Amino acid sequence: MNQHERIEKPVTGRRAETPMPVAAATVTDRVWDALLAARRSGQPKRSDSWTPAERAGWDLYAPLLGQGDRPLVFAQIGQSLDGRVATVDGDAADVSGPEGLKHLHRCRALADCVIVGANTAIQDNPRLTVRLVKGDNPARVVIDPRGRLADDAAVMAGERCLVVQACERERPAGVETLKVAMSAEGLDAVSIIAGLIDRGFRRIMIEGGGITIGHFMDADLIDRLHIGIAPLIIGAGPSGLTTSPVSLLAQARRPQTFVYGLASDIVIDCDLRA
Ligand SMILES: NC(=O)c1ccc[n+]([C@@H]2O[C@H](COP(=O)([O-])OP(=O)(O)OC[C@H]3O[C@@H](n4cnc5c(N)ncnc54)[C@H](OP(=O)(O)O)[C@@H]3O)[C@@H](O)[C@H]2O)c1
User: Fold this and answer.
1) Helix (H, G, I), strand (E, B) or coil at 108
2) Is residue 6 part of a domain?
3) The domain spanning residue 190 has which CATH number?
4) If DSSP codes are grouped into helix, strand and coil, which group holds residue 16?
5) Domain assignment of residue 9, yes or no
6) Phi, psi of 102 (to 5 degrees)
7) Which atom of ligand 1 is nearest to the CA of 242?
8) Per-residue b/e over 178-188, b at no fewer than 16 CB within 10 Å?
């Protein structure tokens, strides 16, 4: 079979059905204010008087508001063209372009809490606050099963911080802990999300890295996944997403996807429940 024939022949019925609309998206002040108002009121309202790019900006973020009181789990990763989130030497500053970074901060502003894994918390020492757009800071959650994170980590300063752990490690005053049992597969992702919902978090964002997002993906707990792609090639380094592999492409997950152009970056919005 030649290459042309291979392309013509669909591998699965699902692939042929998957739509890939592409939309140029702009988040102007009036769109962002409407999204923040909808976050507060629970009543999303897109204006018909907006430009098509503004309406696309709304469409990108409105699903992250969730529906009613139902909890929503979403993940966002900013990666290079070759699927990397940092260099081998750990340089992760600004893989995303300026609009990709704003996108990350918008996602944080819509979330009640933001989760990172221990590697990210230790290597990048992020604050996980909202600085590039208007909005409130989410609570910060670090998954640190073995107690590797130092007590002076930036995530522990300021706003509400919660550490998910399997060990007996004491944390600084004011930092909450959620104890989850460790198995051969790691910490039970279902128990982590249930523990966060019990503590009042409804919009739960997973910011990375790839290993952490992968645990929640494998447990089928993510409703929405945003993959931001910036036009650079890194060559090697940690992957944006690390899930259990499949042996046949026919077994691969093929979510419904929507593609948005945000000037410096594109964002692929994957609806994992469609
Ligand atoms: N560009 C982006 O959007 C973005 C966002 C975030 C991070 N990053 C980059 O990603 C890299 C780090 O990512 P990574 O994939 O190596 O690591 P990671 O996901 O940040 O952290 C993984 C670690 O977290 C703990 N962990 C998380 N979930 C767990 C579970 N369910 N069960 C057990 N342990 C769990 C484990 O810690 P232990 O090993 O201690 O057991 C695990 O090894 C950094 O270079 C960072 O800069 C990029």
Assistant:
1) helix
2) no
3) 3.40.430.10
4) helix
5) no
6) -60, -40
7) 15
8) bebeeeeebbb
**Domain interval for residue 103:** 14-271
Q: Which of 79, 85, 241, 267 to mutate to test the pocket of ligand 1 (most atoms within 8 A of CB)?
A: 85
Cβ(225)–Cβ(270) under 8 Å? Answer: yes
**Could you tell me if the CB of 234 is within 6 A of ligand 1?**
no
Please return the burial class of 231, using the count of CB atoms within 10 Å of its CB with bins 0-12, 13-18 and 19+.
exposed
Q: Does a structural domain hold residue 89?
A: yes
Name the domain count of the chain: 1
Q: List the pLDDT tens digit at each of the 274 positions of the chain.
A: 344 433 333 333 344 455 567 799 999 999 999 999 999 998 888 899 999 999 999 999 999 999 888 999 999 999 999 999 999 999 998 899 999 999 999 999 999 999 999 999 999 999 999 999 999 999 999 999 999 999 999 999 988 999 999 999 999 999 999 999 998 889 999 999 999 999 999 999 999 899 999 999 999 999 999 999 999 999 999 998 989 999 999 999 999 999 999 999 999 999 999 8
Residue 210 CA to ligand 1 centre (angstroms): 6
Q: Does ligand 1 come within 6 angstroms of the Cβ of 97?
A: no
What letter does residue 160 receive in the DSSP assignment?
A: -
Is residue 134 included in any domain, yes or no?
yes
Task: Supply 145's token pair.
Answer: 């099963």
